[in-house]
Design brief:
The structure is a homodimer of 241-residue chains.
Chain A (H helix, E strand, L loop, with lengths): L21 H15 L10 H8 L3 H12 L4 E3 L5 E3 L4 H25 L2 H19 L5 H19 L6 H22 L8 H13 L3 H26 L5
Antiparallel strand pairs in A: 1-2
Chain A binds a DNA duplex (30 and 30 nucleotides) through helix 3.
Amino acid sequence: MNLPLHKSGAGAHDNPPSAKTAIESVYAAVREDILSGRLKPGSRLPIEHLRSHYEVGSSTVREALSRLVSDTLVTTEGQRGFRVAPISLADFREIVAMRKLLEAQALGEAIARGDDDWEAGIVAAFHRLSKVEEQLPTNAVRLAADWEQRNQAFHDALVAACGNRWLMHFRAILFAQSSRYLRISLTKRTVPRDVHAEHEALFQATLARDTELACRISDQHIELTVEVIAARMAQHGTDDI
Amino acid sequence: MNLPLHKSGAGAHDNPPSAKTAIESVYAAVREDILSGRLKPGSRLPIEHLRSHYEVGSSTVREALSRLVSDTLVTTEGQRGFRVAPISLADFREIVAMRKLLEAQALGEAIARGDDDWEAGIVAAFHRLSKVEEQLPTNAVRLAADWEQRNQAFHDALVAACGNRWLMHFRAILFAQSSRYLRISLTKRTVPRDVHAEHEALFQATLARDTELACRISDQHIELTVEVIAARMAQHGTDDI
DNA sequence: GTCAAACATTATATCGATATTTGTTTGTTT
DNA sequence: AAACAAACAAATATCGATATAATGTTTGAC
C-alpha cells in the first residue's frame, strides 16, 4: 500500500481522469493497489483501516469503494463490508474469451474507419513500445511499469478509431481485470514468448488494413497469456479463491 | 417517483438481489426510476432532494448513486454532483451494435453447451411470454410491465447455458440500457412489427440447435428496435441530450 | 447597455459520531 | 465432551452537521 495521498494531485491514470476530489484520490489509489496485487484478491477492505491509512473520513472511503464495485474490482455483500474481487483461473479464461471477441471487433471497426491520424498514432505508440521492448530482456524488472504503460498505449492506439464507446468501455474493464493477472507473470517468465514479434506482426497487419489477419494475430496474442497465467497460478497454488 | 420504501423489503428485481440494506433500497429505487423514465435523462440528482424523498441520510444516497455510476446509469463529474446518464440516438445505435454481438455470442455458446434443463427453461419461459403476447394487441398498456418482465425472462433463458459470466454481465448492462429506450416505444407503436413471430422463430431455431439461424434471427430481432426508437425519438425531438 | 467583479445562495463533498449487525468467546446444559 | 445460548467485541451501515466549491444575482464601472 501507499503513503497518504489526499490532495496531492498525483495518479498517472487516464481512465479515471485526474483525481481532484478526495473520493477520486482514494478510488484511484485503491484501484491501483488492487491492480498491482498489493491488495490481495479476496482479502477484506476494512473501512477503518483504509480511513486512517488515507487520512479521510469513512464515508469517503465507502463511496470510493462503491465506485469500484461496478468496476468489478471490489465486491460487497449484505452487511459484510467490502472485499477485493477474487481471482481464479476459470475467471481468467472467461476474461480472455471476452477480450478476444471484443478486441477483434474493435480492431475490425478501427481498420474500417481509421484515418491518417489514427495510423500516425499507431506508428508513434509502436515506436515507443519497441524502444522499451528492445531492452526488456536485459532489464525486465526495472522497465516493467514502463512497458505496461506503453503496451496499453499501443493497444489503445490500434483501436482508437473504433466508433463504439460501449465497446471501448467494456474493453477497458477487461483490460484492467487482465492486468491484475498479468502482473503475476511480469516478474518471472515461465513460458518463453516473443512478445515483440507478436506486436510487430499486429502492427504490420493493422496498417496494411488486413482485418482478417490482424484479428487472427490479436486472438493469438491474447490467447497466449492463458498458458502463461495458467502455469504461474498452478505453481503458486492460487487457482482458487 | 415513488413513495419512501426504506426498510420495506419490496423490489421485484433479480439483478440487484433482494435489497436488504438502505443503500440497496435506494439503489434499486433510483435504478428503477431511471429505467422507467420517471427520472429524465440528463436531469440532475440533487442529494438533498433524494435524501428527504427516500427518508435516508445523505451519505446513503451518495453511496447508492455511486454504485449506479459504473452501471453507467448515472454520471458524475468533479464537484458538480450526479446526473441521470443522458440518452441519444447515436448512443442507442452503439448499444444495439454491442447487443447484437454479445447476444449472438452468448446464444451460440448456450446452444453448444445447453442441456435438458436449459431446454426446459426455454420452453417454460416461451410459454409464459406467449400467453401475454396473445393478449397484447387488445390490452397493450395494462400488460406492458408484465410483458417486459416475461420478455426479459425469455431472453435470459435462451442464453442461460452460456458459461461466460463476463459475457452475461455485459449483456445485462446493455439490456438495462436498452430498456430505458424501449419503454419510450411501449405505449405507442409507430412501426408495425410482429414481435411474437420473431420470438417464436428464435425459439424454434434455438431448440433445433441451429446456431447460425438463431443468431441471424437474434440480430434482426435486436436491429429492428432501432427503427422503432429512431422514429419515436425523431418525433419527440429527444435525439440529443 | 454591456461587461465584470464581488456577493449571496445553493448544493456538493467531507467528516466524525451513533446505532445495528456480525462474529467470537464464554458459560451453561444434556 | 458436544451443543446450544447468551454476552461481548469488532466492524459495518447510517446519520446529520460542517466546510468548501459552484452557481446565480446584484452591484458597479466603462
